[in-house]
C-alpha cells in the first residue's frame, strides 16, 4: 500500500530541544531516518567512487547509505563530528562497500585538493562528487551578522564547492556527475537565514553555469533543493520555537527526512539521468521553487 505523504513521518510539534553547533544525530528527538532500514539498492552505481561532503549526518549520511547500497565506494568528508562519521562509515561498510573517513576544513583549498587526491589514490577513480556540507546560523537582523559570520558561510557553502569541483573535474572521466545541494531558500529565502539563503541562490546559479561549461567533457552537474529537512543543523542553529514547529509551513504539514532526499541524489548521479544537466531537483514537501 502506498504511503500517505502527510503521515509518512512524524509531524510537528517536535519535542523541545537545543544543541550546540553543529549538532549530533543521537541527541535528536525524533531521531532522523536516513534510510537505514528502508533504502533498497538495485545496482545503479555499481563500482563507482564518490566523495560526499558533510557525509557524517543528515542528508549526507542518507546519500552515503544509498550510494553504498547502489554499489559505490564512498569518501566521507566531515569537519570534526567523529561519532556521527564513524556510524555513517559503519553503514557503508555494512552494505559491502569501502568507506574512507576524512575530517578537515573544506573552507581550505588544500584540504579540498587532498580529498580528491585521497579518493583517486584509494579508489583509482572519481565518478561522483556530492557538495552537501553547509554552514547556517539564524539572526534577527542584518546588524547581528558579523563580517566573520558572512565569510564563514560563504567559504563553507560556496568556496569549498568551487575548490572541490575544480579538483574533481581534473580527475573525472566522461560520465562523471556532480550533485550540489542548494535549497528552497535559493528562491524563497528565510529572512533569518540571510547569509545561508544567499549562498544557496549562488549554488543554484553556479550549478547551471558549470553544467554548460563542462558538458563537452561528458560531465553532468545538477543540484537538489531540499525544503525543511530534519537534520542536526535544525536544533543546533534555530530558536526552540522554530524547532518545535519545523516543517509545519509546508503543504504536506511536516518536515522531510534525510531518507526522502537520497533517491534524488541517486537519480542525478546515475545513468538514469544521462540527459539531465544544469537542473535543480526540488524536494520540498510542496513548497514551490518560484
Number of domains: 1
Report the β-strand fraction as a percent range. Answer: 5-15%
What percent of residues adopt helix (DSSP H or I)?
Answer: 25-40%
Radius of gyration equals 18 Å
What gap, in angstroms, lies between the N and C termini?
A: 33 Å
- Strand arrangement, largest sheet? 3-2-1-4-5-6-7
Looking at the structure, the CATH topology is Rossmann fold
CATH architecture: 3-Layer(aba) Sandwich
Structural class: alpha/beta
Q: What's the helix count?
A: 8
SSE string, helix = H, strand = E? Answer: EHEHEHEHEHEHHHE
The oligomeric status of these chains comes to: single chain
What key phrases describe this protein's structure?
290 residues; alpha/beta; Rossmann fold; 7-stranded parallel sheet; 8 helices
Give a verbal description of the structure.
With 290 residues, this protein is an alpha/beta fold. It has one domain (40-283): NAD(P)-binding Rossmann-like Domain (Rossmann fold, 3-Layer(aba) Sandwich). It is 36% helix and 12% strand. The chain is built from 8 helices and 7 strands, in the order E-H-E-H-E-H-E-H-E-H-E-H-H-H-E. It has helices at 58-69, 82-94, 109-123, 147-171, 194-214, 233-237, 240-244, 262-269; strands at residues 49-53, 73-78, 99-103, 128-131, 177-181, 220-226, 280-283. It has a 7-stranded parallel beta sheet, with helices on both faces. Helix 3 (109-123) runs parallel beside helix 4 and helix 4 (147-171) runs parallel beside helix 5. It starts with 48 loop residues before the first strand and ends in a 7-residue tail after the last strand. The relative contact order is 0.18. The model has no long low-confidence stretch (mean pLDDT 95).
Amino acid at each position: 500500500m502506498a504511503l500517505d505523504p502527510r503521515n509518512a513521518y512524524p509531524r510537528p510539534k517536535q519535542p523541545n530541544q537545543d544543541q550546540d553547533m553543529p549538532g549530533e544525530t543521537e541527541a535528536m528527538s525524533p531521531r532522523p531516518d536516513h534510510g537505514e532500514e528502508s533504502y533498497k539498492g538495485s545496482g545503479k552505481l555499481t563500482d563507482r567512487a564518490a566523495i560526499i561532503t558533510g557525509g557524517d549526518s543528515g542528508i549526507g549520511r542518507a546519500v552515503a547509505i544509498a550510494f553504498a547500497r547502489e554499489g559505490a565506494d564512498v569518501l566521507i568528508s566531515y569537519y570534526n563530528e567523529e561519532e556521527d562519521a564513524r556510524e555513517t562509515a559503519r553503514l557503508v561498510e555494512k552494505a559491502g562497500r569501502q568507506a574512507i573517513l576524512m575530517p578537515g576544513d573544506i573552507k581550505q583549498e588544500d584540504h579540498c585538493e587532498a580529498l580528491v587526491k585521497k579518493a583517486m589514490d584509494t579508489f583509482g577513480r572519481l565518478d561522483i562528487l556530492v557538495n552537501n556540507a553547509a554552514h547556517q546560523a539564524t539572526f534577527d537582523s542584518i546588524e547581528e551578522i558579523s563580517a566573520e559570520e558572512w565569510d564563514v558561510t560563504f567559504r563553507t557553502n560556496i568556496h569549498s564547492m568551487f575548490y572541490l569541483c575544480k579538483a574533481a573535474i581534473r580527475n573525472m572521466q566522461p560520465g562523471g556527475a556532480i550533485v550540489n545541494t542548494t535549497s528552497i531558500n535559493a528562491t524563497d529565502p528565510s529572512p533569518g537565514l540571510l547569509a545561508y539563503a544567499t549562498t544557496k541562490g549562488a549554488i543554484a546559479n553556479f550549478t547551471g553555469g558549470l553544467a554548460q561549461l563542462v558538458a563537452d567533457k561528458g560531465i553532468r552537474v545538477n543540484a537538489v533543493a531540499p525544503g525543511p529537512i530534519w537534520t542536526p543543523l535544525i536544533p543546533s542553529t534555530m530558536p526552540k520555537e522554530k524547532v518545535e514547529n519545523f516543517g509545519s509551513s509546508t503543504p504536506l504539514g511536516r518536515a522531510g527526512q534525510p531518507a526522502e532526499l537520497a533517491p534524488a541524489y541517486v537519480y542525478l548521479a546515475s545513468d538514469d539521468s544521462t540527459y539531465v544537466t544544469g537542473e535543480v531537483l526540488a524536494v520540498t514537501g510542496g513548497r514551490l521553487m518560484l
